[in-house]
Structure formats: structure tokens, C-alpha cells
């Protein structure tokens, strides 16, 4: 049977890389977004608003996917609003597809806030989980939009009879523009500003993150796990952590990133120095850099997300991730973290996103 994928959130960091991988593996691939622009070659664009169910029904009337990949979320002012709106988006697309009876598998991408808590209580002292983070760890007794999204998938699976998988990446490293959480591109832009201005490349985070072990998730390895889980019988109806497969310390990686850009690094020096503060007046500087080098985007806010980088690098504990559920089922893909960053930086430079 022909495999037909619908990627929801196809312009984001996880969705766009997944769509590209699906096309390369011969899938008929539809990419749904509110503004489906600059999709990978071969992806069929679908424009729709997930909150407007009539709009969604019309957009999907001629689409009958066998596999649904959900890679989208919105951030609101409170977690109660996050729960409501993120659950609504997932529920709406599942309800619209329900009558088609073609969906065999639904894969949902969430993340490590499953274990570390929502934005309002993220990695707070007194409620820190034991690491490495393991798939069998129970939900926290807190409202969390990841849990709400999962529950919508579970309910629809019981109703419609499809299998499901949930994928929990750590920080995702990959190319996307306008993404709400993009540590790799944020560091690339920050480093480029440091080089232009002669500033030091200052570590913004905590001592625990500087000294402790960490891991990240390359967007390409997440894409591989999503496709593997959706087509492997023994992987159905399971939640999976997904990281590159190696571990590192930021005190080792930070100067290597600085060296790649030809700038001087400053490590942890006794206090957190938030990137949101360090970059708060850099919008005009980025415009000047973009003009000088002929870059394709002069809007700093669409390329960098310092608030999210601060959230990740400011955590009071080291964070690493166990991958038992997929490793024991045969998923063996590996990605060098150093190469994840350097490959991303080279791509951003080649595409004139950074100088």
C-alpha cells in the first residue's frame, strides 16, 4: 500500500526536516501549515488554520493520509491556555481525518518538558527529576500541554483504531526560520554578532549546565525515529525519548563553537548571564550585519530565540536522556553532536542566513 504522510507543522524545525526525509524515502508527503512557504522540494503544501475546523476540513478534503505526524504547538500566556489551545489543534486535525478511515499511525512530537515541567514551573528547585530521564517516569502533577496533546491522540486512537507513538526530543538542532525554540540558530546569530562587534562569546547559563553532562537531538535523527516508529510493528503504541546518542559537557563544546566562528569564548564565571539580556539591543546591529553581507533576513527576532536558549542553558541540573525504549526495539541511528552544530552553521552560512 502506498504510504501517504501528512506532516502538521511542516515549516517548523522538526516538521520541515521530517518532510524532507519522508520525500527522500519515497513517501507522498503533504505539509500543513498556516503559511506553507519554503517547504522542502517534493512536499505538497496545504494551507490551513488548525483552530478553524471548517477551514481544515476544506483544506484536507482531497487528502487521505496513511500516516499523520504532528509537529506543532503554540505558546500562550499561561499553561492553562497552552493546555486548551494545543489540545484543540491536535483534536481538530484528528477529528477531521476520522471520517476518512485511512490513518494507520499517528506520531506526536513533544519534548523533555514531559519530565521537567511546563514553562511556568520548568526545572524548578524542589521538583527536579532524576536523570537520565527515562520514558517510564510518571507524569508530573502539574498542568502540561504535552500531556493534553498525548491524551487527544490516545482518545482518537481508541476511537479510530490507529496505532500511535510519542517522541520526546531534547533540544532540537536543525535549520528553520521563525521557529519558537531554536538553540542552534540562536547561538549562530549570537556568535555572528560577537564577531561583528568584537564582543566575547559569553556563556549565558548555569554552573550545572556548564559542568554537567548533556545531550541534544539533531532534527535529522528525530525524523528517522519518527519514520521508524510509524513503520515498525514492535514500536507501535510506545513513547520514545530521542537524542543523538552521545553526551557532552558545554564547557567542552562552547569553546569549539567559538573557534568555528573565530571568536573568543568566556565560560561560566559565577553567575547566570541571560542571553535575552545580552542580545536585547542587537536588532539594529543585526540589520547592519545583514545589509553588509547581503543576508536574506535582517529581522533578529525571526532568527533567534534567546528566551528558549536561556531556559535550556539555565537549568539547575545536568540533563541527559535514556533511549531504552527505541534501542531495545532496534533503532540504532547515531549522530555526532559536534557535527550537528557545525553542519547547521555551515548550512546557515551557505544559505546566507548568517555571514
Can you put this structure into words, describing what you see?
- The protein is of the alpha/beta class.
- It is 41% helix and 14% strand.
- It is built from 14 helices and 13 strands.
- It has helices at residues 13-24, 53-59, 79-98, 113-116, 145-160, 183-197, 207-211, 219-231, 250-261, 275-278, 283-293, 306-313, 324-327, 337-350, and strands at residues 4-8, 28-33, 44-47, 67-70, 105-109, 163-169, 172-173, 201-202, 213-214, 217-218, 238-242, 248-249, 265-266.
- Strands 3-2-1-4-5-6-11 form a 7-stranded parallel beta sheet, sandwiched between helices. Strands 7-10 form a two-stranded parallel ribbon.
- Helix 3 links the parallel strand 4 (67-70) and strand 5 (105-109).
- Helix 1 (13-24) crosses helix 8 and helix 3 (79-98) packs parallel to helix 5.
- The protein is globular, with a radius of gyration of 20 Å.
Describe this protein with a few key phrases.
globular; seven-stranded parallel sheet; 13 strands; alpha/beta; 355 residues; two-stranded parallel sheet
Provide a short characterization of the protein structure.
With 355 residues, this protein is α/β, with parallel strands linked by helices. The protein is built from 14 helices and 13 strands.
Layout of strands and helices, then pairs:
Layout: E1 4-8, H1 13-24, E2 28-33, E3 44-47, H2 53-59, E4 67-70, H3 79-98, E5 105-109, H4 113-116, H5 145-160, E6 163-169, E7 172-173, H6 183-197, E8 201-202, H7 207-211, E9 213-214, E10 217-218, H8 219-231, E11 238-242, E12 248-249, H9 250-261, E13 265-266, H10 275-278, H11 283-293, H12 306-313, H13 324-327, H14 337-350
Parallel strand pairs: 1-2, 1-4, 2-3, 4-5, 5-6, 6-11, 7-10, 8-13
Antiparallel strand pairs: 9-12
